[in-house]
Amino acid sequence: MDSFLHFAESPEGQKLVADIGFINLTPVALKMTPYPNAPEAYRALMTSGERLSISFRFANGSSELDSRALKDLRRLESYMEQADRELSLTLVGFSDQKSNNNIADIISRFRALKVQGALLRDHQLGDSRILALGAFAPLTADRGQAPVKNSRVEVWLN
């Protein structure tokens, strides 16, 4: 079973996944339409950069990257190695809404720094900038008892 999973997650396996019409895990650069209510630095990034289809997430209630994020670090490293031009990264951190906006900003910066540290330490990708956006642009809406989810780090190319 382990050998099948390793193959399925490999570049060859992901090519087969795409060939049969499923969504694969290979990073893709996407041009995004800027949000009109976005903070100026994020709007500028959206205008001039491209967002990779990778978002780093964290284990529930933890500051550690989850298992998919650890694999996405390798996918990002491979993407950067295969790029036909010099790329620089901006890591955009987000957090869940907290009782204090300063806390949300600190958590979002910490998350981006955590990814930056892993890229530098384990993957020799040190050329990255940090943008912390706190609780801006949550992934899920507040629906009564369901918590708002926003714990992520986006990867932007510029």
Beta strand %: 15-25%
Describe the global form. Answer: globular
Q: Percent helix among the residues?
A: 40-55%
The ordered H/E elements are HHEHEHEHEE
Radius of gyration: 16 Å
Structural class: alpha+beta
Spans of at least 5 consecutive residues whose pLDDT stays below 50 are none
Q: Span between N and C termini?
A: 39 Å
Average pLDDT number: 84
Lateral strand order in the biggest sheet: 1-2-5-3-4
Contiguous helical run count:
5
Query: What is the count of β-strands?
Result: 5
Largest sheet: 5 strands, mixed
Summarize the structure.
The protein has 158 residues and is α+β, with helices and mostly antiparallel strands. It has helices at 2-9, 11-19, 40-48, 67-82, 101-123; strands at 29-30, 50-56, 89-94, 128-132, 152-157. A five-stranded mixed sheet has the order 1-2-5-3-4.
Write the layout of secondary structure elements.
Elements: H1 2-9, H2 11-19, E1 29-30, H3 40-48, E2 50-56, H4 67-82, E3 89-94, H5 101-123, E4 128-132, E5 152-157
Characterise the protein shown here.
The structure is a single chain. This protein is α+β, with helices and mostly antiparallel strands. It is 41% helix and 16% strand. It has a 5-stranded mixed beta sheet with strand order 1-2-5-3-4. The chain is globular. It starts with a helix and ends with a strand.
